[in-house]
């Protein structure tokens, strides 16, 4: 007696192995959140664009090493996020913030904006013209950053670090992150004709 085995359509036979071995899509790791810090500006300056080196009404540009700070904002699925508002605030070249609680605020560089904002383009890109912030006691040089989608559903507050800063080794906030997470808030730094370019890509979600 012969058993009759039901036949399967050829297309199903060919497709089934691919369905069985298809890997799950890996989500990109989120950019670690970090504290806002004590020096978020109490009053946003009148000139709050993406160029922190040139302040309206000032006869000169800010002192310090020029830095183009840029990157791409993406979701966990890797897709670019356009229309995200990115804000940064940081110390000037002398390590002084635009904030009344900074004990040296009277000596800050008036030609440095201290705060800037921009909106990501269709490819999720953002860019600022700024300077490398100077260190101040207890911290390594860093740039504070906040990114938020237009609908408010995605938001991140973090800090961006320089890979070549010697103070990194003793910075409590940076060293508190595991090495793989630390890399996600450390910018890629390259030399340019105008100074340096620091790139930090952000993943929200």
Structural commentary:
With 205 residues, the chain is mainly beta. The protein contains three helices and nine strands, in the order αββββββααβββ. The strands form two sheets. Strands 1, 4, 7, 8 and 9 form a five-stranded mixed sheet that branches. It has a four-stranded antiparallel sheet with strand order 3-2-5-6, with no helix packed on it. The longest helix has 12 residues, at 10-21.
The ordered H/E elements are HEEEEEEHHEEE
Instruction: Return the structural class.
Output: mainly beta
* Rg, Å, rounded: 23 Å
Instruction: Give the assembly state of these chains.
Output: single chain
What general form does the structure show?
globular
Q: Runs with pLDDT <50, length 5+?
A: 1-6, 10-21
Quickly give the CATH architecture.
Sandwich
What's the helix count?
3
Based on DSSP secondary structure assignment, what is the total number of beta strands? 9
- Please give the domain count: 1
Question: Approximately how much helix is present in the residues?
Answer: under 10%
> Can you identify the CATH superfamily?
Aromatic compound dioxygenase
Reconstruct the topology from this structure.
Layout: H1 10-21, E1 66-75, E2 85-89, E3 115-119, E4 125-131, E5 142-148, E6 155-161, H2 172-175, H3 179-182, E7 188-191, E8 196-199, E9 202-204
Parallel strand pairs: 1-8, 1-9
Antiparallel strand pairs: 1-4, 2-3, 2-5, 5-6, 7-8
Summary tags:
about 200 residues; mainly beta; Protocatechuate 3,4-Dioxygenase, subunit A; about 10% helix; disordered N terminus
């Amino acid at each position: 007696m012969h058993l009759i085995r039901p036949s399967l359509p050829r297309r199903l036979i060919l497709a089934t192995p691919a369905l069985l071995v298809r890997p799950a899509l890996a989500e990109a790791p989120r950019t670690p959140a970090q504290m806002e810090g004590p020096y978020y500006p109490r009053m946003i300056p009148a000139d709050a664009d993406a160029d922190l080196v040139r302040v309206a009404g000032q006869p000169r540009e800010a002192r310090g090493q020029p830095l183009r700070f840029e990157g791409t904002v993406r979701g966990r699925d890797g897709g670019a996020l356009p229309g995200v508002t990115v804000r940064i605030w940081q110390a000037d070249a002398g390590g002084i913030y635009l904030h009344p609680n900074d004990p040296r605020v009277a000596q800050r560089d008036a030609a440095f904006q201290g705060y800037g904002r921009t909106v990501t383009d269709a490819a999720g890109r953002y860019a600022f013209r700024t300077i490398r912030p100077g260190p101040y006691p207890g911290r390594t040089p860093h740039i504070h950053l906040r990114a938020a989608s237009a609908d408010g559903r995605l938001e991140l507050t973090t800090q961006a670090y320089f890979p070549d800063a010697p103070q990194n080794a003793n910075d409590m906030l940076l060293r508190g992150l595991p090495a793989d997470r630390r890399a996600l808030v450390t910018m890629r730094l390259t030399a340019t004709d105008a100074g340096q370019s620091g790139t930090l890509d952000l993943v929200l979600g």
